[in-house]
Amino acid sequence: MNYRILLTSFLLMFITLSCTVNREVHGDFDSSKQKSKTVAEGKDLYLFWNQLQVHNIENEVDVENYEKIVRRRFFDAAIYVGSLGIFSFYSVEIKVPEERGKSGR
Fold this sequence. Notes:
The protein is an alpha+beta fold. It is built from 2 helices and 5 strands, in the order αββββαβ.
């Protein structure tokens, strides 16, 4: 009986941790009014319960107006829970507004 409660609470915690999404808008970018394209995708790495940031995908992109979408996916949550919070990954996507007037040909 205790194993069922332990397993259920572990799975509930695991599912809850893997469902986070955060959107940060920098500059004059408004994704509801402008079409956007992805310029960078990657992983941010944190250590010691998100206290020390080791890798930041934002440093690899040189743009002013952009939207940063941060998600903790299933794999990211598995690493976080498996390492007891010492390692923490977030999947990051950076979008910029598409340039107007270009046909793409």
